[in-house]
Amino acid sequence: MFSRLLGVPVGIAAMLVLRLSARKAGVAVMYHSVDHRQGDPRRELVPPHDAGLFEEQVRFLARHYRVVPAADLQDAVRARRRGHRFPVAITFDDDLACHESISLPILRRCGVTAAFFLSGASLDRPFSFHFERLQRAYDAGVPELPALVTGVAQTVGPSSVHDLALVMVEMRPEELDQAAERLLGATGPDPESAGIRRGAVRALSDAGMTVGFHTFRHDALTGLTDAQLAEAMELGRAELAEAAGAPVDVIAYPGGRCDGRVADAARAAGFRVGYSTERAPVTPASDPLLLGRIGPSLHTVGALALEAAFTLVKRGSGRPSPVPERAPS
Fold first, then answer.
1. Do residues 10 and 16 make contact, with C-beta atoms less than 8 angstroms apart?
2. Residue 229, pLDDT score
3. What is the bridge-based pairing of β-strands 250-252 and 273-275?
4. Which of 21, 104, 165, 256 is least enclosed by beta carbons within 10 angstroms?
5. Cβ contacts of residue 199 below 8 Å, gap of 6+?
6. 294: which strand partners?
7. d(CA 169, CA 279)
8. CA dihedral in degrees (71, 85, 284, 257; nearest 10)?
9. Quick check: 247 and 130 in contact, CB under 8 A?
């Protein structure tokens, strides 16, 4: 109730006070699905933002912050001066058709840019990831879902869709593939609308949006071996870059699962910026391969206003690291 009634004025007031300082900080905002309905986080793994609310939140950010490309957020932070607006980057994760059909028109109406972190697994055919197949099975009321996920008959164990998703995150890649196939067998083929096709990826790029990488398999990267991690940084990347018609040198780690080893692997693969899901500001001292992001409220603009302002005064994310050289344009 507070955020709905007072969140916007309090958030703006706090941000304006901060603008009087010389603080160098910025905020990255993370979205996933945008739909013509409000999602339910109690029963959905990736609940969508209502399109109307999403547009209100984007307009708020465009009005009170300086929206910059995700790849340039840390540079904008370094360049900020006393009295200037704080920079913010808008980002999206996952391969979703709504990026092009719903989110892009709103971004264009608002005159802002955003980064879309994609895997490229559905460029040429419908494809759903394991967590999307789990959601379909859960929504369909598939019986004995825990046993279907684990492959082991169970009388007790995790039963909520969120608990089952956590079980899958901890699986080894081969176990995860098997669970995904069992779920596919229980729910039928991936729907025609699953994923995002080449034409939509190019439409995002042609509209001035950044196409980044979310890894081809969407594995939890911290659980991979060094060899698997190195492969994850490259598998499908060239194909995604070809579809976008632009280099893919910005990454968001699936599920926010990252650490120094993951960041070093991304750096070695030539990525110059990497985003986690740590709710922290971006500062000059942040490791550019371990930048934080906040997830906006599904309910109000006020909650976003408050979190964005208060995030600016937190400590920065990631470990200090030398600034990487920018790739030639």
1. no
2. 97
3. parallel
4. 21
5. none
6. 29
7. 20
8. -50
9. no
